[in-house]
Amino acid sequence: MLKNKFAFARLKYSSGDWDTDQRMPANILNSLLEYTTIPLDPQEKVIDLNTNEVFNYPFCYLSGHKLVQFNKQEASNFKKYVENGGFIFVDDCNHDIDGLFAKSFETEMTRIFGPQALKKITNTHPIYNSFFKFEKGPPTTSFELNGWGDDLVHEYLKAIQFEGRIGVLYSNKDYGCEWDYDFRNKRFLAEDNTKFAVNIILYALGINI
Fold first, then answer.
1. Which of 38, 65, 110, 118 is 20–30 Å from 90 (CA)?
2. Which H or E element spans position 83?
3. Which residues does residue 120 pair with via DSSP β-bridges, in sequence order?
4. What pLDDT shows up at residue 87?
5. Where are the domains of the chain?
6. Percent composition of the chain: helix, strand, coil (DSSP 3-state, to 5)
7. CA distances from 63 to 40, 47, 92, 172 (A)
């Protein structure tokens, strides 16, 4: 059990557009409340990657559509954070492997961690079973099925791992937009599409429920 309340921390960075999917955090927090017993802070936290405040949160979210180009302090904090046990979920709002966000973010990961650090994870990875069971790996988004972005269904996620544990989870599937709706509208869905977010967060926190 967490000693402190879980807070959904969004990373603010100096390039591009970081303030995406504005209804998504409240939706995910509602799912954690509905499915788990972990204590929650009801308000999203926006954390400047330039500051040491990032080290106060075990889970962070980073997203955008445009350029990702960290300054020296941002890159240093990003590296130190994940190497010391932090977890960053990075989601490409363009759901496009050839888009500006995807290309620039992957370039930054090569610059910070080396060219072999960001790799595909298998669809049997423990993150797909940390709470709900996803036997086929990452669930598909409506944006992929509707042919938006690069018109591909991405059948895998990528990650940077340290000692067998994910420090950076990277998605081209645009989960942020998929989950960007008022949580009260969830009742109209045939299946709650935020369940994978619960898996990601519980994996990040190292919680087995």
1. 38
2. helix 72-83
3. 158
4. 98
5. 9-205
6. 35, 15, 50
7. 22, 13, 6, 10
